[in-house]
Amino acid sequence: MRDEPRFTEDADRTVLWVSTSIDTRGGVSSFVRTMQGTELWLDWHIHHVATHSDGSRAKRIEIFLRAVPGLLRALLSRPALVHIHMSSYGSFFRKSIVVWLAALLRVPVVLHVHGGEFHKFYSAAPVVMRAFIRRTLESAVVVVALGATWRQRLQRVAPKAKVVIVPNAVRLAHPVAQPSPGEPVRMLFLGRVADSKGTFDLLDAWAAAFGGNDQAARLTIAGDGEIDRARKRVTALGLGACVEILGWMPAPQVDDLLGSSHVLVLPSYNEGQPMAILEAMAHGLCVLATDVGGIPDLVDDRCGILIRPGDAAALAAGLTRVATASAERRAIAEASWHRARDEFDATVVSRRLDTIYREILS
Fold first, then answer.
1. φ/ψ bin of 218: left (φ > 0), alpha (ψ from -120 to 50), beta (otherwise)
2. How far apart are the first and last CA of the chain?
3. For 68-112, what is each residue's pLDDT tens digit?
4. Same domain, yes or no, for 149 and 238?
5. Cα–Cα–Cα angle for 46, 50, 54, rounded to 5 degrees
């Protein structure tokens, strides 16, 4: 589907979405792609304008400037409302221009905040900028938070804003089959390979839990970032027989990895609402993650195992637990899939957005 908007005469049922390109990496583009496959996209004649893409700073500025004419045409066509997906830092400043253009044209704004570090971005800003951030959020008719943790944080930033919860969405897959007796448990890390994501904590904990033994469990790491450093760490720790570093993978191959794994491990130090966890739940994987950001909004003690970030002993113990306690791992995986079905399936989330749109326009 093209990013350039198409127009409809039924303006009362037209919604303009503004976000990063659907071809970029990350949770926002994944959410937009998922929603494109729902009835919401057709029922509300949603048109999408991309104001950002991956690449250098110069390229990102160029893409934003090139998007401005189409954005202005879309706003001047008087859509029923504009749904803006923003994160922190540069994303906020780009999207704030759209917020205030929509306000000038009296088009209602739904402001969907995806940034896992938005509260840190706000706290580090100068006083005048904090006032601008607060006023921008409060100018929207609705601010969307990904979970209860983020609603509280956004409400502290903008006390007068109406903040509602809409989680990220996934498409359900068939639950994965658990390993047969004697077969190694396949664990998967998806995300940026970096200290902030706990990737190197994971490698150290893996060495403590299993050493170079590839009989009990195997680990695959897929993502961009410090790939060479991770491969050197694997070699230094003698883990080459049971740990594979793949680097970044396109979406179809990620789906294949999820479908052939049993456990997702994400020992991050900070997160918003990671799509990796939602996708793992949608495939019926057991989740081992840290209790940071919006992760506890997704995973409770029935459908995952949560530990503190940076706790090497707890991470090693968690790895051993999910590798050896097969009945518990199976029960957690089953509960994980059912929660994804009941709360995070794309159809469920799209109905929530439909309700919000109707309430705004009623």
1. beta
2. 30
3. 888 889 999 999 999 999 999 888 999 999 999 999 999 999 999
4. no
5. 145
DSSP per-residue codes, 122-151: HHHS-HHHHHHHHHHHHHSSEEEESSHHHH
Residue 201: name the closest of 312, 323, 287 by CA: 312
Same domain, 338 and 351: no
Is 251 within a domain? yes
Whether residue 355 contacts residue 289, with contact meaning beta carbons closer than 8 Å, is answered with: no
CA angle 220, 221, 222 (to 5 degrees): 115
**The two three-digit tokens of residue 282, written as one number:** 């949608």
Its pTM stands at: 0.84
- Strand residue runs (E) in 97-256: 109-113, 142-145, 163-165, 185-190, 217-222, 243-247
What tokens appear for 340 in the block?
A: 């994804």
DSSP code of 11?
A: G
99 and 214 housed in the same domain:
no
Residue 237 sits in the same domain as residue 140: no
Q: Model confidence over 213-237: pLDDT tens digits? A: 778 899 999 999 999 999 999 999 9
Structural domain range at position 248: 185-344
What does the block give as tokens for 69?
């004419």
- Residue 175 in any domain: the answer is no
> What's the number of domains the chain is made of?
2
Instruction: Name beta bridge partners: 245.
Output: 221
What CATH number has the domain bearing residue 329? Answer: 3.40.50.2000
